[in-house]
Amino acid sequence: MKSVLYVALPAAPDGQLQIAREHGDRLEVIHHRGPFGAVDCIAFAPATMVGHFRVSIPSRNEIEASRAALYAIEDELAQPVEDIHLVLGPRSKGSSERDIYVVDKQLMKSWLDLLSKAGLSPGRVFPEQCLFTDIEHPVDLGDRIIQREGNRIVGIDAALPKDARDVFSAPSDMAGLEDGLHLIRLAERSATRTGTNLRTGIFSLPRNAKQGVSTWRKAAGIGIAAVSVWTGTLILEARNYNYATELLNKRAVERYAAIFPAAAIPPDIDRETRDMLAAVSAPDTIDFRISVATLYEAIASRSGVSITELNFDAQTSRLTAALNSPSQDDTSLIVAFLQSGGFQAAATTSAQDTGTLTQITLEPVP
């Protein structure tokens, strides 16, 4: 019987692997780097480097589900969709909600390269979140904390300053695990839960192909039969899909005209609906991450503008930032952008030798 190795992947591409193995009826952390011989291997991707979402995804098959999932979380991603690898969790009986896991493609490739250099090729790479989807309280994994945030399971770097962890409502009184013990916790957890494997699509484990003429003949026969069935099914599905799309578009136009009788029908009702659903009333407080993201988005469109100081006061719900800009016109445009984003923004400027120094204050709209 093959022994089983468990590997904790590093957050950085050039980090070190942590390895544990089954030894009788217990798990032990090992410090040598092989060779390991014939072993089964399970790897765990750190939650700080894998995004987790849970949304409703009605679909007929997994291909449609993946496309719908990417569309549903596109606005939440911090990088282009072409650069991420997306995997769906298993279906839940009686619910259309699915767990979605995303990881940077280059990081995923660097993990597999790191494992290959150690002589390991795990068939399963589990994101840590998939082992903790049922938690209600934060979980200590040594250098990171896993906790629930709404429908999401997120990983928080335990090395962050206390003020930063307070923003995420992360506990600051956890003692921390000894080195390697978090891997044993993950290994034990994986034995009682169905994980979601990141090794799909372009990262699937290569299979050994059988050789020989008879094998190819059999494969060709099955292929020809499958193509015939698939072609007929595809034509039928395409007709049904096109008919359903036309019917839904027609109903959407009728519904829009009934709700907004004096308005022109927009060319893209889907986008118009998403924009309206995204609009929310002004809150009594501002969120640190949202306000900072809006500020960075505002200055990104202005060349030569830089942030020299940033402060956030959670008690007064106020964000202050000091900016260096080439001219006062840049400041006016940045303030206008922040106000259009639903914030109350005020600015004071003073002339400097290198340009304009601006103090911007963001507060919730009263």
Give a verbal description of the structure.
This protein has eight helices and 15 strands. It has a five-stranded mixed beta sheet, covered by helices on one side. A four-stranded antiparallel beta sheet has the order 12-13-15-14, covered by helices on one side. The mean pLDDT is 81. It has helices at 62-73, 105-117, 162-167, 181-190, 213-259, 269-278, 288-300, 328-340; strands at residues 3-8, 18-23, 26-30, 39-45, 51-56, 84-88, 97-104, 124-127, 139-140, 144-149, 152-157, 306-313, 318-325, 343-352, 355-364. The N and C termini lie far apart (68 Å). The longest helix is centred in the middle third of the chain and has 47 residues, at 213-259. The radius of gyration is 26 Å and the shape is globular. By secondary structure, the protein is of the alpha+beta class. Strand 14 and strand 15 (355-364) form a beta hairpin. Helix 7 crosses helix 8.
Mean pLDDT: 81
Describe the strand arrangement of the main beta sheet, using strand numbers.
3-2-1-4-8
Topology pattern, helix = H, strand = E: EEEEEHEEHEEEEHHHHHEEHEE
Instruction: Give the helix level as a range of percent.
Output: 25-40%
How big a fraction of the residues is strand? 25-35%
Low-confidence stretches: none
Largest beta-sheet characterization: 5 strands, mixed
DSSP E strands, number: 15
Determine the structural class based on helices, strands and strand pairing.
alpha+beta
Rounded to an integer in angstroms, the radius of gyration calculated over CA atoms is 26 Å
Separation of termini? 68 Å
Number of helices: 8
Shape: globular
